[in-house]
Amino acid sequence: TFKRCLTLREKVEGPDSPDLAITLRNFSELYKAQRKYDLAKAPLERALKIDERSLGRDDLVVSRDLKNLSYLYRAQGNLPESARLLERAIAIEEKTWGPDSPDLYPDLNNLASAYNFQKKYAQAEPVLARAVSIFEKAKGPDSLYVAEAVQHLAVVYALEGKNTQAEPLFKRVVAIEEKALGPENPELVVDLNNLATVYSSLGKYAESAKVLERALRIAQKARGPDALEVAKQLRKYSEVLRKVGREAEAQKLDTQADAIQTKAGQPAKPK
Fold first, then answer.
1. Angle of CA points 18, 6, 2, to nearest 5°
2. In the chain, count of helices (H) and strands (E)?
3. Neighbours of 39 (CB within 10 A)
4. What is the pLDDT of residues 37-86, one digit of tens each?
5. Closest-CA residue to 195 (of 178, 211, 184)
6. Looking at the domain that runs over 99-179, which CATH code has it been given?
7. Does domain 183-270 have CATH number 1.25.40.10?
8. In 3D, which of 200, 201, 269 has the Cα closest to residue 241?
């Protein structure tokens, strides 16, 4: 068992052995796989201390320990501590890889996510803006990596109600994806919906309707006319059509959505 292995290794190699830290990390992973996050923390915290003493506080192994520990705190809902650990891990990685390394992106994204869950959008903004800048330098402005990073930043602006700032970012995401994937790729549907939502929030219902009509066509072509995803798009489109006074068209779309849902065994929308 892990406990027996841990005891034996501690006796043979001493309590501060780097090999003991490996065993402790394995022990932590076992508990993590069982979702016993509180039990997983103690061996990992001990491994972190061993690694700091034996390898130095700025070693990438220490950074890995910090990220794993951050995950455990996040799983338990302790987002401030999770973010603090990630901040330190990122600082170590910056020293090793440089401040513009694309390898920083996953951790920057996770840090921004931890801020978002705490509704600390002002702190998430510069982290995500930095992620955009890193990928622009490393991959070029039209890369799908850039599109993903820009989308995350746009979502934060939208969550803050900064829709005038979110609008050009969502437009940029759509433009990059069109160029890289083609104008009818189903990956566009999510970002077209995001753009439409921002338009509606700004009172630009005519623009929102055009975007949603396009998203509907893409979904129909990609998924088939009877897909439940198409029913959802029909509902979104009908809601905006009502905003611009096109009630008759909206009713037809709702009827189509009802038929799709009924065929799939789902209840139609209440009248």
1. 120
2. 13, 0
3. 15
4. 999 999 999 999 999 999 999 999 999 999 999 999 999 999 999 999 99
5. 211
6. 1.25.40.10
7. yes
8. 200
